[in-house]
Structure formats: C-alpha cells, structure tokens
C-alpha cells in the first residue's frame, strides 16, 4: 500500500483534512485539533461501534470530564470508537486532542528563543491543563495511551489537584525494578549508628577530632568545586553535541530518510500494533495515514524527536520511575496481553510501583486495546469508576459489537 504524504504534491493544510466534528483552538501560537463527545448528547458515530444494550442497572456519574492523550504516531482518530462510550459511563464530556507533530494540529517551526517549544513535553502538559480549563472543570480524568501515558503523568505532577484519576493504557513508561536491599541496608545503618554513638560522643571535645572535621569539610568543598567545573564542562560538550545532532536531524538527508522509512514500514508497524491484524481495515489505515498529508509532517516529526533529546526541563526532573510512589490519585493501568511493543509484565510492574493502583489485562489484544477491544476496554474503565467514584441508579449503556 502506498503511504500518504510521501509525495510532496500531496501536502495540504490541516483544516483541509478536518472532519465535520473537528474543532480547532489556538494555544501558545499552535492551532490544536480536538474533538469533544458529551455523555448527554446522541451522536451518529455510534453506528460504527454497534448497537447499545441496557445490561446494567446502575451507572457512575463522575462529574469529571475526561481528557484523552494519544500515543506516538497516533491522533484523535485512535480514540474515535471509545470516546462516546466513555462519555456515557462518565456522564460528562470527553475531549481528545492532537499533540503537535501528530494528527491535524498545526506544525510550526520552533524558534530558538521561544519560551515554550511546541514539540516539548511541557507544551503537551500545559495544553492538557488548558483543555481541563476549557471544559470548565476543577478536575479531570486523564487517559494516556503509550507515550500519552507519560504526558498524563507529567500533567499530574504539574498540578495534582487538577487530576481526579489517571488511566494509563499500555503506557510507554519504564517500570522500576523493586528490591528489598534498600530496606535491609537501612536497618543495618540504624544498628551501626547506634553502636558508634558512644565512640562519637567520647571524641566530642577532642581537639584532633575537631581539626579532622575541619579538614574533611574543606576537602568536601574542594571536591564539590571540582565536580561542578567538570559537570559544567560536560554540559557544554553535551550542549554542543546536541546542537550538532539537531542540525543533522534537520538536514534534507534526514527528512528524505524519514519519508522513506514511513513509506516502507509505516503500514507494517501499524498492523503489528493489533493482535488480530485482520481488524486493520482500509478505514483504519486511512485514519492513521491521513495526517501524513499535512504540510511539514516530516519536519515536525523530526522536531518532536529533537525536543525529546534536548528537553532540559524534562531532564532536570527525576525520572518518572522514581516519582511513581508520589502519586496520590486513583490509578488504573490497562494492558493488552499480546502487546508486541510494551510487554504486559512492564505494565504489571508499573502498577506495583504506584500505591493503590488497579491493574487490568485485556485478553487477545495488542498495543491498542481501546481500539481492538472497545467493549472490554470500556467495561474495565466502568468498573474502575464504580470502585473509585461510587454509583447511582440509572441505566448504563454498553457497547455491543
């Protein structure tokens, strides 16, 4: 199959590819494409999903809208089949938006002196909170798939009070390795400190001990100065290397290579995301490849990679794996048991690192359970809402294939 967007004369403006229900808004100079579904309004797009049946006698009304964050190479399209059912079970609005470099969001050329790089993680985080504000909500449920899971977590840490719950779908987040060694070493340290307490107190007024302490502190100070100088030189060299790398990535050779790789392997990678590849219809292929017809899609993809490599704000923070224990809101982690990209064991370990999180595995599903197994995915989210938000009497609409 020929991949759209590999011929230069096919490029068009994002608005030319918009759907009837597409919306655009400007945020920090970027026209962001998004869609909204309301739990209280019917929508013809449900015909693509199937009929609805009243199979439960109750329904959660969370009163919290949901913001859906797509993964790498995806867009609002990946949430199309799940948006309306999610709006139904939440009883609120569901919004999905295209992050810069993907979907139908504009692809500006970043300026070096610009305060906020549109392709950076922080831009996506702030855009997420911008949409929470647009939905006139104090809090929202953030749903992040794959790389969107990282955005969801960073958005939580940016403003925890604005996040009612987190739902991470096959999250592209490296889980930490758990170990009991820290606890054991902490216990041994306590014993050692207690045993040495008497010897330290006996040297309290010892002149030699005081001089040794002064010498030790001075040595530490010198070491810190030397370390700071070496670190500064390393940062300068690193910055220089990053600039050289960025210049290479922006070259015509790299852009041609990006177009070639997408043309040769794009469809194959897309099919690999499904467990049952027969579900990848021409309609789905068109939905995923349509953004490749947007002007500058290749350069924007390169800028996204450069932003990931050179994001100083992101690198200044501890890795997400070291901050998972700080999460206080309800968390649901969902994974497909046949995911070829993010193994299920990583998601399970991730759930073990987040206190009180729920972990669900969807059978016979690949990397995209919210697309490949819509009914099961919505049911999992529904049970999660029932657990954390309670329920009221009202018929629940479920998706039926």
TrEMBL record:
AB hydrolase-1 domain sequence ranges: 66-379
Domain of life where this protein originates: Eukaryota
Gene3D superfamilies found in the cross-reference section: alpha/beta hydrolase
Gene Ontology molecular function, alphabetical: hydrolase activity
Gene Ontology cellular-component annotations: chloroplast envelope
Sections of the chain in a coiled coil: none
Signal peptide: none
Name of protein: AB hydrolase-1 domain-containing protein
Species this protein is from: Cuscuta campestris
């Amino acid at each position: 199959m020929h991949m759209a967007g590999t011929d230069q004369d096919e490029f068009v403006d994002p608005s030319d590819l918009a759907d009837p229900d597409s919306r655009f808004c400007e945020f920090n100079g970027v026209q962001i494409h998004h869609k909204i579904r309301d739990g209280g309004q019917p929508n013809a797009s449900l015909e693509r999903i199937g009929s609805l049946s009243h199979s439960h006698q109750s329904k959660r009304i969370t009163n919290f809208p949901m913001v859906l964050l797509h993964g790498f190479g995806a867009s609002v399209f990946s949430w199309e089949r799940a948006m309306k059912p999610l709006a139904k079970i939440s009883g609120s609005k569901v919004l999905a938006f295209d992050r810069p470099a993907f979907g139908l969001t504009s692809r500006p050329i970043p300026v070096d002196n610009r305060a906020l790089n549109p392709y950076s993680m922080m831009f996506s985080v702030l855009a997420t909170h911008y949409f929470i504000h647009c939905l006139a909500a104090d809090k929202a449920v953030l749903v992040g798939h794959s790389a969107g899971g990282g955005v969801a977590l960073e958005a939580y840490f940016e403003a925890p009070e604005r996040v009612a719950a987190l739902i991470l779908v096959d999250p592209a987040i490296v889980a930490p390795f758990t170990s009991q060694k820290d606890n054991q070493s902490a216990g041994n340290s306590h014993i050692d400190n207690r045993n040495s307490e008497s010897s330290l107190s006996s040297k309290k007024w010892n002149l030699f001990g005081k001089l040794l302490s002064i010498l030790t502190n001075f040595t530490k100070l010198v070491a810190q100065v030397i370390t700071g100088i070496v670190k500064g030189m390393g940062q300068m060299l690193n910055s220089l290397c990053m600039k050289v790398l960025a210049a290479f990535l922006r070259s015509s050779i790299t852009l041609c290579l990006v177009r070639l790789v997408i043309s040769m392997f794009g469809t194959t990678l897309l099919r690999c995301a499904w467990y049952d590849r027969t579900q990848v219809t021409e309609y789905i292929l068109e939905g995923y490849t349509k953004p490749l017809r947007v002007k500058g899609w290749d350069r924007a993809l390169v800028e996204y990679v450069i932003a990931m490599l050179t994001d100083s704000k992101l690198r200044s923070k501890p890795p997400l794996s070291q901050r998972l224990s700080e999460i206080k809101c309800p968390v649901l982690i969902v994974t497909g048991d046949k995911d070829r990209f993010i193994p299920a064991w990583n998601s399970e370990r991730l759930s073990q690192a987040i206190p009180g999180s729920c972990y669900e595995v969807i059978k016979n599903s690949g990397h995209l359970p919210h697309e490949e197994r819509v009914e099961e995915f919505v049911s999992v989210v529904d049970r999660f809402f029932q657990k954390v938000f309670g329920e009221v009497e009202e018929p629940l609409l479920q998706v039926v294939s």
